[in-house]
Each structure stands twice: as structure tokens, then as C-alpha cells.
Known about the structure:
There is one protein chain. The protein is α+β, with helices and mostly antiparallel strands. Helices cover 35% and strands 29% of the residues. It contains 2 helices and 5 strands. It has helices at residues 9-25, 29-46; strands at 4-7, 52-54, 57-61, 67-74, 79-87.
Amino acid sequence: MVFNVKTLVRAELEIDEAVFYYETIRKGLGEKFLLDYENQLNTLYNFPFFEEKYNIVRVLPLKKFPYLIHFTVNETEKTVSIQAITNNHQDPNTTKLKQ
């Protein structure tokens, strides 16, 4: 069973922000972040039933970077909606909300 994965604008902005951040640390590190994210996306296409953390929102950690993918699953429509990508080390009280 294959799921359709869609990424909300907020999550896209967070991915871009993380790639930019890692590229400023070391050239090519942003690409490695993106590959780690894309590898986890492949997992979500086939098996999106990971830890339910916040009511209906599930989370899947990246393998090599300290980030979580926050997503919802609609089993009827076979869709996964990526809501946010968060850094595990950021203070949620100071993280700006993306629109």
C-alpha cells in the first residue's frame, strides 16, 4: 500500500531554513540534511504509522540530524500530510511560527 505524501508550506520553509543553516556550517552539509529527510520520506510512502505524539500528529525522526518530521495520516484517502519539521534542540517558546 503506497501513500501520497504532501508537504505543507510551513514544513517546506522549515526544510529550506535547515538546509541553509547546515550549508553555512559546512558546504555540502545542507545536501546531507536533505538526503536524510528524503530517505525518511521514502519510509512514509510505504509505512507512515509511527509514534502518535500529539493527538493525531505522528512523528518520525531523521536518522542523522536532530529533527522530527510531524505529520498526519488519512488512511481512507491514503495520504500523509507533513505539517512541520522541528529541531529537537530548539526551544519551542522561541521558535517562530512559519505561515
